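Lecture notes, unit on binding sites. The following record was shown on slide 14. It pairs a sequence with adenosine-5'-triphosphate.
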Amino acid sequence: MNLLTLTAENYRNIASARLNFVPGVNLLYGKNAQGKTNALECVYLFARGKSYRGSGDEDLVRFGEKGFHIGISYKTRSGEQTLDYRYWEGSRKRQKNGAPVKLSEMIGNFRAVLFCPEHLSLVKGAPQERRAFLNIAIAQCRPVYLKLCDEYNKILENRNCLLKEMQKGFRYDLEELESWTDRLADTAAKIAEYRISYLKKLAPHAKDLLNDLSGSRETLQITYQSEAEGETPSEIKESYLKLFGENRNREIAAGCSLFGAHRDDAEILVNGISARAYGSQGQQRSVVLALKLAEGEVCRDETGEYPVFLFDDVMSELDETRRGYVLRETGDRQIVLTACESGGFDPRAVNMIGVENGIFTEQPRTEG
Ligand code: ATP
Ligand code: MG
């Protein structure tokens, strides 16, 4: 999959822009606070459905304006496609190839893998960071997974609400609790199955990639961690039901659900020890890079083509070997990356786009 163009109007500090991308490596370069990350955020919004920086749409509107309009065109095996997103005073319009689509119908069309400095939290951070990684990666290849997660969150909210009422003594309805428990165990088991099977596909790629990145010094293992046992949905559901049954009073006392897909994690080991607890900064960064590149490999295995790789400000943090690995071993991957300097990039091989105050200027390509 290749990104062809990005257009943006009144998006953050971008008043109006049209960018052209090439297959291979594209570099957005410029000083701090010029709009490089804004452009990547804008592209990734089409893959994820919302800003990855946790901003609401209203924050994305250029100061002093009432709405923004962004669009991409991209090429897939089935031809050229477009996606458009307009936000105007609280209302949203999304279009795929000119026809209106819902948010859930937009996700899964344009697929991208994003790697930015904050993603070190994938190794260092709380379990929710690793769950978010899995959720976003799975949803891009299997959009139905998003619906399952939405359903799960609604059931969890209802069950937690009831547990809270039971904790406070406002209500004591075991029959209703049983019913929510069964539904929660059922959807938690389905989510766990998706995540377990995703990790089984991701792990061998991530292991090979870290092996290459580290000059065969580091072995990566990543496995799903859950209090429920089993691998099939029925085994996992049974295990959850047993946990809920044995801990009913604890859950009522806590006023919330103590088990489920919202508590699971993925354990990452390098050479057999926890990367979170013992990994050096450099090792942790390499693990994240390996996981992100592996995410792209799984996406290609599942859909037949690579997603677009978006690398925000990470090149300066990688050493020469790793940077070379990313830039030279591109194969048929398309990469859009940002950096403060254009030095160190080969203008014959890289599509250079200068960024200044929200204005994007394409540099003429020198033939190599
Ligand atoms: P760095 O190299 O420091 O990461 P950058 O080029 O990636 O810089 P961006 O994160 O893209 O910078 O932000 C560019 C500018 O956009 C910032 O100065 C920020 O204040 C501005 N900005 C953010 N949101 C809005 C908005 N809604 N309207 C106008 N400007 C905004
Ligand atoms: Mg930035």
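Take-home: The chain has a mean pLDDT of 94.
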